[in-house]
Design goal:
Number of strands: 7
Oligomer: single chain
Shape: globular
Strand content: 15-25%
Helix content: 40-55%
Radius of gyration: 17 Å
Number of helices: 7
Length: about 220
């Protein structure tokens, strides 16, 4: 898969195409609550920058733990709003092991969301792989996790995100094709003074995670 991976990672689709690829598959957050959630994520990111500093890969004090903190600052408000609005029992697991149905173990994933239909009936929804160095390094592990997640779900669609902090990418897997967006930013240095700019261009991370929560683990199929 090495050569195919090198070829695949050159091909990306626009974020808006990814968001329209499947469309909503289940209950989601009302539009006005989505906007309020974006405001909350923005406030959390400002708090993150003020408390931990702007994430710079070359900074020796910038660790993978800082990237993980940033992921939580973004995910937590979206997940909380989604659970309140839909009543779905979706939970976030940190450092959850992903084991394929043939019992192969592919290590620990930084963040995995599970949707529990019943006490023993849980479906993987999405995974976030966070690395300090680059999203390229996180991508291979994310692909393995998505394959195992879908195998465990016995079909459907699953979503993954890879991030090194400032940049993110979204990946979709339907059992046949992997599809990825191009890298998109969630932070910029002057965002504390340009809230409208962040809401207009950078809050798309909220839309992407919201769509993954609505469609992740569903029985929808599509082509990448």
């Amino acid at each position: 898969m090495g050569l195919r991976f090198k070829i695949w990672k050159k091909y990306c689709i626009p974020i808006d195409k990814m968001l329209k690829q499947d469309g909503p598959k289940g209950d989601g957050i009302r539009e006005e609550i989505v906007e309020k959630t974006k405001q909350k994520v923005y406030d959390h990111l400002i708090e993150y920058i003020e408390s931990e500093g702007y994430p710079i890969e070359s900074d020796e004090d910038f660790k993978e733990a800082n990237v993980n903190d940033l992921v939580i600052f973004i995910i937590a408000p979206i997940l909380a709003a989604f659970r309140r609005e839909t009543g779905r029992e979706i939970y976030l697991h940190r450092e959850k092991d992903i084991v394929s149905i043939d019992k192969k173990f592919h290590g620990y994933e930084a963040f995995v969301m599970m949707d529990f239909i019943g006490m023993e009936d849980g479906k993987h929804v999405l995974v976030v792989e966070a690395k300090k160095s680059s999203i390229g390094q996180a991508k291979w592990q994310c692909l393995l996790a998505l394959k195992d997640m879908l195998d465990n779900n016995l079909g459907g669609v699953v979503y993954g995100f890879v991030t090194a902090g400032v940049e993110w990418q979204m990946i979709r897997y339907d059992g046949k094709d992997f599809t990825q967006t191009g890298p998109f930013q969630v932070l910029f240095r002057t965002m504390g003074y340009e809230k409208e700019e962040w809401m207009k261009r950078y809050s798309v991370v909220v839309d992407c995670i919201h769509m993954a929560l609505r469609g992740g683990g569903s029985g929808a199929t599509g082509s990448g």
